[in-house]
Amino acid sequence: MSTASASIQMAAPSGLLSLGLFLVAVALVTLLGGSLWLGARIRAHEQLPRPEEQPQLPPGGAVHEVREVRESAEIPKVDKSGHALTPYELAHSSRPSASQERRRWDEGGSGSFGSGGLGPH
Q: pTM score, two decimals?
């Protein structure tokens, strides 16, 4: 019987454990609240930039978007005896295309990946 009563006492919820968890939760909430208060206080004391420190338009006026069709540079062919080119050795450039007409999807094509269609035949 003594082992049965000992196991019942161990299984009983401990008030001290509950109090400890409650104090940890209160400490966490206090810490988070204090950090929010301190951050708001620091932000309130920051100075706003002066008008001369604000961004200015360029002398030529506003810059507008330029749309053009570009072609990528060709990747050079490497023979069997040569070493493979690394990405750092490739040219990272493109040039304007001869035709500035935008490419359109093929008729009957899905226009996107994963749409479930069979695609062009």
A: 0.35
pLDDT at 106: 65
Task: Name every residue whose Cβ is closer than 8 Å to that of residue 7 and which is 6 or more positions away in sequence.
Answer: none
DSSP string, 65-121: -----EEEPPPPP--TTSPPPPGGGS---EEE-S--SPP-PPTT--SSTTS------
The residue type of 85 is: L
Q: Is 10 helix (H, G, I), strand (E, B) or coil?
A: helix
Residue 27 belongs to a domain: yes
pLDDT classification of 80: cutoffs 50, 70, 90: confident
Q: Could you list the residue range(s) of the whole structural domain that residue 22 is in?
A: 15-45
How many CB atoms lie under 10 A from the CB of residue 51?
Answer: 7
Please indicate, yes or no, if residue 55 is contained in any of the structural domains.
no
Residue 19 resides in a domain: yes
